[in-house]
Each structure stands twice: as C-alpha cells, then as structure tokens.
Amino acid sequence: MSETGTAEARPIRTFHPRRGRMSSRHADAHAALWPRLGLTVTDGDRTPLDLAELFGGPVPVVLEIGFGMGDATAAMAAADPGRGYLGVEVHTPGIGNLLALAGELELGNLRVARGDAMELVHRIAPGALDAVHVFFPDPWPKARHHKRRLIRPGNVALLRERLRPGGVLHCATDWPEYAVAMAETLDADPGLRPLPAAPHGRPETKFERRGSAAGRPITDLRYARS
C-alpha cells in the first residue's frame, strides 16, 4: 500500500475528523454558496479535476490544505485576485466560515473543498498547480502517530508532482520537532530546491497566534519545484 492509501485500502488519515455545529451565518452561507463554490472529495475517486472548469477559466491555482477557519485563506485570495485559491478542509464550521467570507468579500477566485486533501491531490493533473500551502498542519507529536503527518516523503512527492516547474510548496509549523522533520523531508526530495529565507508573505493564522502565545517559534519552509 502507498503512504497515502489506495481505493482498495483505507488511507492513513493526516487529520482528526471534525464536524462541529455551524452558526446560522455559516449555515446560510453554505446553503447559498456551496452549489457554486463547493466541491465534495470522495475517497477513492480518481476522476480528473478540471481546474479551468472549476474556476471558470484558466488561472494559476493555489491549493490550500487545511485552512482552519479560513480567515487567512480569504485574505490571501482577496489580495491576489489573479490566482485561483482552492482550499480543502474537513472542519465543518471552518468550511461555513470561509464560504461566508467568500460571499461577504465577493471572492470570485475562491473554491472550497470538503474531504481528505490527499484524495483531492490525486485528482489534480501533474504540473497543474502554481503553489501549495500547508500552514500549521496537525503535528501528531507522539512518535507512534508520526506516520499520520502530512509532510512525509510519499505525500511530498505527490504534491511536488502537481506543481508546475518553479511552483512553490510553502509549509509552516509552530512545533520545532516537526519543523526539523519537515525540513529533512523537503531537503531529501530530489525535485525540490529550497528558496532563500524571506518574509513569508502570508496573513497570521489562528493556529499561529496560539503557538506564539504558548512561546513556540514559527518556522516557514518554502521550496520550489526544479
């Protein structure tokens, strides 16, 4: 079995399944906007995803994996109208909040997917993405859970293949041990090259604020496909 699983075997989950209750604002946004902006990810579905059709035309696309409540994703999409932003999440209130923000900010360049991000990645054509963002994924700190971490060799290879040449994989974490493991994994991928240290150019996320408040350092890692 591959690290991300197959249609015949249950994949290794890189997230805690979370539902939660939507507020009336979120529920109203979901009802109004999901038919136009939403995409349901089904395990084992390998139907190719036409990004140009999804966004109503050919645009460079950024895949945002695990957007949380979506505030940072909405801010990036609003500041970057020339690219399409495809966010994928499993947290129901977060999905509702991002849809609400998309409506309030009139974000025509934003789409929202629900489900396992790596299942979605399998449906995206190689070389189709301009960038992939993995900001503050679950660190799975216990050693026996490290196999569930999103940034591991098999997943990184798959994400890199979906990037265009020169496309950027941008990861961030507030767990120092995971930052070291991320850097080792990214450095070891033969198709990625590290980018020089520079301002990360992304809005602060809720998880980042929480980590900073707890005294944990924030690490950003940016690599380009060779």
TrEMBL record:
Record pathway: tRNA modification; N(7)-methylguanine-tRNA biosynthesis
Keywords assigned by UniProt, alphabetized: Methyltransferase, S-adenosyl-L-methionine, Transferase, tRNA processing
Binding residue positions for substrate: K142, D174, T205, K206, F207, E208
Compositionally biased residues, Basic and acidic residues: 201-211
Residue positions binding S-adenosyl-L-methionine: E64, E89, D116, D138
S-adenosyl-L-methionine found in the keyword field: yes
Catalyzed reaction equations: guanosine(46) in tRNA + S-adenosyl-L-methionine = N(7)-methylguanosine(46) in tRNA + S-adenosyl-L-homocysteine
CDD domains registered for this protein in UniProt: AdoMet_MTases
UniProt xrefs under InterPro entries: SAM-dependent_MTases_sf (IPR029063), tRNA_(Gua-N-7)_MeTrfase_Trmb (IPR003358), tRNA_methyltr_TrmB_bact (IPR055361)
Chain residue ranges for the region called Disordered: 1-21, 194-226
Taxonomy, superkingdom: Bacteria
GO molecular function, one term: tRNA (guanine(46)-N7)-methyltransferase activity
Catalytic activity, EC: 2.1.1.33
Family of this protein: Belongs to the class I-like SAM-binding methyltransferase superfamily. TrmB family.
Record function comment: Catalyzes the formation of N(7)-methylguanine at position 46 (m7G46) in tRNA.
Protein name in UniProt: tRNA (guanine-N(7)-)-methyltransferase
The organism of origin for this protein: Actinoplanes sandaracinus
Designated gene of the protein: trmB
